[in-house]
Amino acid sequence: MDRESIVKSILKSSQKIESKIKRTYKKIYQSVKWHPSVRNEQMPNFVAFLYDSIISMKTLPSLEQFVNAYMKKYYDKVLPEGIIYHTYVDRTNKAYQSLVRDLHFYFKLKESDLFDHVQLSYAYDIEAKQDLVVTLGDKKLGLQLFDGDDSQTKWKEKQTARRKIILGYPDYYMPLNGTECKPVNIGSQREQFLVYSDHDVKMVYHKLLKASNVENYVEKETYILPNPAIKENNENSIIGKEEKLDDIVHSYIYVGEKNILDDLDKLKRLLQRGVRVEWASPFSTGKRDLPVEIFARFLGNLRLHQWQGARKYNLEIPDGRYNILQGNELQKIGDNTTFNFEQYKTEHASTQKHLIVEAGAGSGKTETMISRLIYLLHTKELTHLEDVVMITFTNEAADHIKLKLLKRLYHLYEITGNIRYIEWSEEVTSIRIMTIPSFAKTVIRDFSADLGLGNDFSIRTLTMERRKIIEEELDKYISKQELNFKTLGAFREYEWREIIDGFWNEMEKKGILYDFLEQIEWGEEPDDKLEHIYYDMIKEMLSNCEKKFNELKLNKNAFTVNDLTQKISEIEKILDIRQLSKPFKYLFVDEFQDTDDVQIKLVNTLTDLIEDAQLFVVGDIKQSIYRFRGANYTAFDVLSEQLGKNNIDRDYRLKKNYRTDSKILEEIEDMFDVWRNDPEQILPKESETGNNRLESTIHHSIYNKSCSFEGVYNTRGYDYASKIWSIYHSMKRDEQDEEEDKPTVLAILVRTNYQAREIRKILEELRNGKGRDIAYDVVTGGSLFSSAAARDLLILFNALNYERDPESYYALYQTPFTSKPFNPAVLLKFEGDRDKICTHKSFNEVEGFTEILAALRIKPTLHAIYQFLANNSFEKVLAAQNMQPHEIEQYRLNLYRILELAGDEAGASITSVHHLRDWLRQQVASNRDEDEMQADVTKYKKLIKVVTVHKAKGLEFDTVFIPYTYMKFEKKTQQEMIVVKEKDKVRAGWKIAGSNDNEFLVESPLYPDLKTKENTENIREEARLLYVALTRAKNRLVVIYNKSNSNRNDRRNWSDLIRLGRGETS
Q1: How many CA atoms are closer than 13 Å to the CA of 693, on its beta-carbon side?
Q2: Binding site: residue ranges?
Q3: Phi and psi based region of residue 300 (left: phi greater than 0; alpha: psi -120 to 50; beta: remaining)
Q4: 151-187, pLDDT tens digit by residue?
Q5: Where does the UvrD-like helicase ATP-binding domain start and stop, copy by copy (predicted)?
């Protein structure tokens, strides 16, 4: 890469230069026009020195750094007290300003997207005496940039007249302080630094449009910089020259008519050093045709592709070093063979720009990310894995990536015997693979003092405190406004508390906290009295509650998860890379389509802060399914805009699918094409012009019927139990399941937790009847505090709190904490006398109950509870109830997870079982964020997994069954808040409806319009959700949908979308 290209890649954008100048620029005030003993310095000398400084420092040097370094190198013997020294300093100062101004204007011209090409070249500066050259079609213009006014243009013209070459295009003279230019200040108010402006960019564009075409200017010759010659492959064979083999460090591609068996010894040398070999030839040589030592040892790092078209090639590519023409040929080869050019291109991409990779379902994005890391290590672009931050959206995903990276490194060690792979594998734990909230927390901790926080701040839900704030603020507001039951529309205070809490949660999901509340547009104040009361009340309550909540968090030195990313916007104002305890060189972000606007800003801010850091984001806009919590499916576009399109390379798209049988993929892609081309484009397109379909690599079926869409007229009355039983017993284990010794899974995918519970009931009936041999696992989102373990713990805490309450005590008989049956009939003789009932009860029937009552008097509360669970035989009781072994394990894990959360979140406030009971009751009532623990299910040969689509994302299953497609997207709700973020503004609307006994409807002014748009976005979100569900299948897909008698083009449920995609609507 030439010097200019390296400099451009380091500086990246005009914004980077502006940021650096604003932070570091300080004028040198001594100004000396001339001294007879001072020689005239030539500008190319300054250019070379500045460029070398940028490359060595990996950033733009400050004026002070540049001047000091230049003077030290060339004039270290000149006394700093003399006027000669200050003359040299003055000239170096002016050179710095001029060169930085040129670089800044280069980026401004590039970022405008008005020109086909903008050239900044050392050679042009010397030979053509032009600072920049812009091109648009056949028009070209050389720019002469200089400080001064119009009077100095003539002097500049005399300079350019002395050049010895003839250009084919005109000059345009741009004195910074001339009448045409309008410079702007990018320095501080005190230390001004003037540069060319956006106005000047447009002025150049209009000047270029008026210029004549290039050929009209050509007299004798046109000035063109020479291109390096490209040697033919057959004259420069790598595999033919042994000394060249050692130069290859990561990958080697051969495409041609050679048989791999002819070059085994030389290829073995490559493979033994961990180099991956891709060999495309006309021969049908398979891996099993290779010698055993080659096949067995290098499996996975040697990829063979048979293609008759390879005969016309003689192509060798080492380490991804290919030119544009070779890249076009590799694309053709990838289209005709099993070679995946898209993955290869992404893996070997330049580190000079940020990368956005759009990866379709099953396209191997995790594999590509790991290959990218190995490439960076092999090429020494990355020396230590601790310089990598990798952001995922779940802890499970983080663990998965670490495991796959460890496996790859160990495999390379087995191949090569090179100890460096062991050393790198030991560094894997130092990669910061974490969720966005975790990453934000580590960054905030570095700046905690500047934010007025203690370094030991904690992350808590503070649910109980929130509700208390709502109650207090609501009581104050109602008293202050003299409102009552009637004036509040017959809503009681507890109902209003729920309304405010719900609306507040919706605001937080969209990243709207206190500082942003003033920016919300609510619409014009309504005239109707009740509407006006609600309008004022909701606005003020949200503001007051958020303000009080902020005060409480500061006092407790605590944050909620929502605060973490919001705090990043405060850090942006005080960012200083020196305060980052662990800077990074590479930032990988997985599932980027699920980020919200604040998280996008976090990624942008940190990448901008660390000037030589490279960003690698990967995701699939078709799988953006978290809009309900603020995710922005246009995240790629937003990030491109924030970082600047010239700093990002988006030409990476993974389309080859390694998961799904081609018969399934073809059928569902036909549906997706209909959705993409729908007038409302209910499924987004990655490209408006290119092919958006996934391409299957799986062309063998293990089932007679791989894809089945069964349309029925009565989906509600459908016999799902028989269908599940039939599918389960027809499942076949494939080679991968046998090899990895894992269960073959039938996944029943559902939209909601309610649907998952309905399927659980069906499976329980099957297991208690004809299907006693079936094993099933139910996985839903946010269900820890609605689980049986949470319910039973709460019953236990109630009994411990109310020893003289028979209802609480006898409720324990409904839990597995006792094996004794409970017969209510024995209580009839006491005729409701509570004292007699309590005298009758026996604590000994609940194993460990007497002991825990004694322990609570002398031991910490949580310690006593742990002791009870350790001694109680609840697992035996559950086993006797025919509960599956993994469900018993999950129940136990859930119990301990709840106690762990109680210790983490409630902390010191739990001083008694009473406090513990209150905390858990609150979580059971409101917490739907925490997931249940997952037990080990790998011991089964076949398994039914009931899972919501959100929890299934990123997973794959042998067979996917999708029932309940008839259920409507939209639930009828009494209250609804809609918050929409549109660029720099936020609009909000709400509705409040009365109950059946109190029928009325109040809508805020913006609600109707926002609701219309919300309905459209909901349909798109559901289409993306169904896309995720359908693309989880590997070998078989079974879908039951409602085959309507109507030809209406409704979009109320998944059945409607399926009929639309299958052409069954008018």
Answers
A1: 16
A2: 359-366
A3: left
A4: 888 888 877 766 545 566 788 999 999 999 999 999 8
A5: 338-661
